[in-house]
């Protein structure tokens, strides 16, 4: 694009408020970066596609701005005329131009965030240090904090949920652009170097322009695993150890050195390759392949680090003392090179290297490096740690602490964090599949029985008896269904993984759509069949219920109360250190009951669970199944964690990181480190610095209950009780076309129907984001507030303002709505509504949505005492405002292409154009799924 296409140009942003002028001044370098990338992209478009295409891009952008500002009808007609006059080929080129500008603007914005983070001005900069300072001010000493981290767990869990529409090829090029911008920021370039940097930027942008934005083939599960593992190279393998070590150093500042090292509380988790819920392509063999790929990545990292460490530890025995145990370790080395005969540390490292390569061979994982000699494989990761500890102790005892604190320290911490398995892989399956599997096994073992015909209490009795039995349910003489054999094979593969990689390789078995005690006991029995649960009451794995729907959330504390009272299950919990994990699903509860009710029922479920677990003296660990979008539980992580009810965090938390959120948080090491710090700091804050009572004032709870009920009725009335809503949804969104994108291995629906109930939460939310309504993130709130105020005139708006000021949960709820509404556009949404062929249906439903949208914004601004959306978050406000000029045209083009596609236009470029717009809009909105 050109200078005129910049959203920061005076034609686009007229600073008629003082804070606008200040913001524009503060963002000068961001504007410079956007101008630079926009100019290079514009030159590329002109060179590659011609001046006519470049001019057309500019004309569409300017007209779109006029339409967006005030639903300008002449601008709308002009826009439609421009779009109608374009050929399909022109349209695709226009879409690519706007999409790439969206991607490049994201890079510039990320670099600006890094810049502000370094300067200490951005949100979250030094957040862990700030939280430690708050703890110190509250009288919490270093020893208390060390004890806290000894049993703490902070675990981001990467999932393959299909909301990342970018290819890795384009991400790699974008990361190179980011690297070049970063270098320009950090290094004072000479004139020649600046020219070379410009040329390299042009080379990268041109390569991007000539690279397919879309995948031509569907991803396999192992492709998804490989994509997920790339973030370990970018960030996790180095930044996780550095963060823990930095925290250890902070706790030692100004005091005595601790007797023992800080516990490695930060552990990476993954669902990629273990999540079978609705994905038939995740099999036992795929899971084995996943574990091998994970182990290969971490083994290769250790070997690379050892290789460099060996070159660094050139310490000569006649110049520095070494410990006896180090000398013994060196003597066992197979390295016979005369050049290293007087260098015991290098010999010891060679020996460790040889043993580690033998371990990789034993684990059947691929590595590229070869040792200088043969070594015996390590039987466990503890043996590797013991050898590295020998190096550490020798250096410390011989006055070389500064050397011990270098690469060796990071490697020792990495081994402690990642083991031989890299990430803790969860296995997950739907409770209905477990039920069918158990039914087939039980019916075969007990002729005449019909397990599925049994009531809940009869099932509980039967399953608890089976847990105590030493016999196997599975018979070699029975031919079971493919589904049952598939499930049994997965559990056998999990048992193999424990034996091969250690119990941390697969520590959790998660039950999706858990609705009762029998759902958990069925899994316990299946685990017993493969030896992961023992009849004596020991378990090698955590059994984790996932409560997802509104009804299940409401029942969760009652279910867990009975489970912890059940002797045979309680023994399993006690064998796991008296810790029980419970997962809460944000996505399905939102689709089921709407944003307000979902958030509230999740909060209430946590209050109930905290009270139940305290009564049973069992430690509760919550696993939050949050998506990237607000409609799926997304939003700022720190605020979300700190807003949990008292006792809900308690030092341990696991949180899913999904789709495009993974790449936005963890593609850049510096940004990734900051996001990991945020999780650690928030866990510390919520556990030690927030009020300990599980529930706020009773009148707050009552008011929220009433608001939730009203919002629930409004949402359900629209989505599930309005005749024709399903037709409206499928007609006015890109739900059909999303299914054609090769962005994941999992199907979009659980069943082959159009019903909202059967649709997965991800495409549901993704579709509403694409048409710029974001309906799952706000619908029902406005009418709920209006009705509540009418019913409570004595309290009214002042009481709601008090709620917002005093209660972190309510503040977070409204803050997330503020963000999502700012990204919405009722003007653009109106164009999507016109895709619905039934005019009466269109007017009826979109009219309701429009009224609720206006009502929601008015009530939200009133409660928050704001004049405009995002007034309290100027950084995000500018970011959102900057995006509209290049985001809106993609929506307009998408509408026209959808109209063509649904009119059965046979040109395959039409569908390709739609897919490209989905990519570009997703990039512009960022947290869309």
Total helices: the number is 38
Main sheet record: 9 strands, parallel
Please tell me how large the radius of gyration is.
29 Å
Low-confidence stretches: 2-19, 629-634
Q: Summarize the amount of helix as a percent range.
A: 55-70%
Quaternary structure annotation: single chain
Distance between the termini: 28 Å
What shape does the CA trace take?
globular
Strand neighbour order, sheet with most strands: 3-2-1-9-8-7-6-5-4
State which percent range the strand residues make up: 5-15%
Helix/strand/pairing category: mainly alpha
Number of beta strands: 9
**Mean pLDDT metric:** 89
What would your notes on this structure say?
It is a single chain. The protein is mainly α. 63% of the residues lie in helices and 5% in strands. The chain has a 9-stranded parallel β-sheet with strand order 3-2-1-9-8-7-6-5-4. The protein is globular. Residues 2-19 and 629-634 have low confidence and may be disordered.
Structure summary:
The chain is mainly alpha-helical and 929 residues long.
